[in-house]
C-alpha cells in the first residue's frame, strides 16, 4: 500500500484552546474584515453557544452585523440564496460559521454566491469551477466529528430535482478554524458518541484506504489515539473540558487526514443508508466500521495491525502477536462500541436502530456500489460483497 506519489494540502490556520474564541477579532482584522455575518442553526443558538462568540467579538471591538440562525439539517439552494441576500443587504464583508456539518457547508456555499455573484448556487457545482479566493471565512465547530472545518467540499440539496449538489475547491477552505472546548460541552451523550465515531472512522479509513500517505498517516494515528483515550472520559464526565478539547482536535486531525487520503466502503454504506433510511451520518459510521474492516481484513492486515498501537495502547500492542494485531484492533473498536451502547444505547447493528427494514438492504447495496468513495476501498467490491457486509451488519 506504499505510495510512490502523493499530494497533501491543508492551508487552514487552526486556533485551538480554551481561549480560542477570543482570537476571532484578531483573525477578522488581520483580513481587514469588520462586518461579519454569523451563520448557524436553531439548536446552536438554543444551546447558548452564540453567546461566547458574540461576547468575544464585542470585547475585541468587532460587532457581528447580522445572524442567520435557521439553517436546516439538510441545507438547500433556496436557503443559500436567502442567506446570501441577507448578507448583501446588511453589507457584510465576512462569514463566521458556527455549528456542525450543515451550517458549515451552507456557509461555504453562501461564500461562493456573495464572492462570485448570482443567486443560483448550482452554477458553481462540481470541481475546479472556482478560480479565485472568496471572502474572509471562519469556522467554529460545535461538534467533534465532521472535520468540515478543514475540508474543501460542501454538499447542498437541490430540492426541485431531488439531488445533492457537490462543491469542491480549495477556495472553500476557511481562513481559520476556531477549536474551543466551550462549544462542545453541552453536546448530548448520543451526539458526542456519534460524532466522535464519525471522526474515528475518518481516521481509520484514512489510514487503511488506497490513497493513504505518510502525512495523512500521522494525522490519522494521532486522531485515533486521542479519540480512543478521551471518548470514554467524556462519556463518563461530559463537563471534562480537557477531554472535550482533545476530541475536537482529533476531529480536525481526522478531517485533515481523510481530505488527503480519501475514505472507503464505510462511507459508501453510510452515505447510502443515510439517504435511504435517514439515519445520522455518525451513527452509520460507527455501525458499519467493524464489519467493513473485517471484509477488508486481508488487504489491510499490516496497517490495521499497526493501528492497534493507537487504538488500544502500547501494552496491548506489545503483548499481541503480530499475526493477531489486526483482529485485535477490530476487537478494540467493538469494545468501544459496546461501551457506547452502555452509555447511551448507540446502535451497533442495523436492527438495533429500529429504523431500517430488511427489504431496504438491496437498495442500500446498489446505492453504496455507485458511491464515489468505493473507488478508494482497499479491496475490490462487488454488489454481492456489499450484500454480505449488510447482512452481517443487520444483527
UniProtKB/TrEMBL annotation:
Per the record, the similarity remark reads: Belongs to the iron-containing alcohol dehydrogenase family.
- Pfam families, from UniProt? ADH_Fe_C, Fe-ADH
Q: Which organism is it from?
A: Tamilnaduibacter salinus
Tell me the ranges covered by the Fe-containing alcohol dehydrogenase-like C-terminal domain, including all copies: 192-394
Q: Which domain of life is it from?
A: Bacteria
Q: What is the protein name for this chain?
A: Alcohol dehydrogenase
State the needed cofactors, names only.
Fe cation
| Keywords, alphabetical | NAD, Oxidoreductase
| Domain Alcohol dehydrogenase iron-type/glycerol dehydrogenase GldA, chain residue ranges per copy | 11-181
A GO molecular function assigned to this protein is:
alcohol dehydrogenase (NAD+) activity
Amino acid at each position: 500500500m506504499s505510495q510512490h506519489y502523493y499530494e497533501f494540502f491543508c492551508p487552514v490556520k487552526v486556533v485551538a484552546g480554551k481561549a480560542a474564541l477570543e482570537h476571532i477579532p484578531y483573525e477578522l482584522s488581520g483580513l481587514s474584515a469588520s462586518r461579519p455575518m454569523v451563520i448557524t442553526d436553531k439548536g446552536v443558538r438554543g444551546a447558548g453557544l452564540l453567546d461566547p462568540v458574540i461576547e468575544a467579538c464585542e470585547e475585541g471591538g468587532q460587532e457581528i452585523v447580522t445572524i442567520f440562525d435557521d439553517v436546516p439539517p439538510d441545507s438547500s439552494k433556496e436557503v443559500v440564496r436567502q442567506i446570501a441576500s441577507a448578507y448583501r443587504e446588511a453589507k457584510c464583508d465576512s462569514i463566521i460559521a458556527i455549528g456542525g456539518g450543515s451550517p458549515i457547508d451552507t456557509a461555504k456555499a453562501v461564500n461562493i454566491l456573495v464572492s462570485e455573484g448570482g443567486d443560483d448556487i448550482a452554477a458553481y457545482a462540481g470541481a475546479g469551477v472556482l478560480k479565485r479566493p472568496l471572502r474572509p471565512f471562519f469556522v467554529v465547530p460545535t461538534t467533534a466529528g465532521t472535520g468540515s472545518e478543514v475540508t474543501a467540499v460542501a454538499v447542498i440539496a437541490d430540492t426541485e430535482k431531488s439531488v445533492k449538489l457537490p462543491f469542491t475547491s480549495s477556495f472553500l477552505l476557511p481562513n481559520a478554524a476556531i477549536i474551543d472546548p466551550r462549544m462542545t460541552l453541552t453536546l448530548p451523550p448520543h451526539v458526542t458518541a456519534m460524532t466522535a465515531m464519525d471522526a474515528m472512522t475518518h481516521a481509520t479509513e484514512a489510514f487503511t484506504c488506497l490513497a493513504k500517505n505518510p502525512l495523512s498517516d500521522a494525522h490519522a494515528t494521532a486522531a485515533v489515539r486521542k479519540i480512543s483515550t478521551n471518548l470514554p472520559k467524556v462519556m463518563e464526565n461530559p463537563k471534562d473540558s480537557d477531554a472535550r478539547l482533545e476530541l475536537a482536535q482529533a476531529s480536525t486531525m481526522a478531517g485533515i487526514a481523510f481530505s488527503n487520503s480519501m475514505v472507503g466502503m464505510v462511507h459508501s454504506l453510510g452515505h447510502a443508508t443515510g439517504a435511504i433510511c435517514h439515519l445520522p451520518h455518525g451513527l452509520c459510521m460507527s455501525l458499519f466500521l467493524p464489519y467493513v474492516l473485517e471484509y477488508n481484513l486481508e488487504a489491510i492486515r499490516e496497517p490495521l495491525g499497526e493501528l492497534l498501537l493507537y487504538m488500544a495502547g502500547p501494552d496491548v500492542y506489545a503483548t499481541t502477536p503480530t499475526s493477531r494485531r489486526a483482529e485485535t484492533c477490530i476487537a478494540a473498536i467493538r469494545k468501544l462500541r459496546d461501551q457506547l451502547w452502555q452509555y447511551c444505547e448507540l446502535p451497533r447493528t442495523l436492527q438495533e436502530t429500529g429504523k431500517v427494514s430488511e427489504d431496504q438492504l438491496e437498495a442500500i447495496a446498489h446505492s453504496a456500489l455507485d458511491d464515489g468513495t468505493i473507488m478508494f476501498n482497499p479491496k475490490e467490491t462487488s454488489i454481492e460483497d456489499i450484500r454480505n457486509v449488510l447482512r452481517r451488519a443487520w444483527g
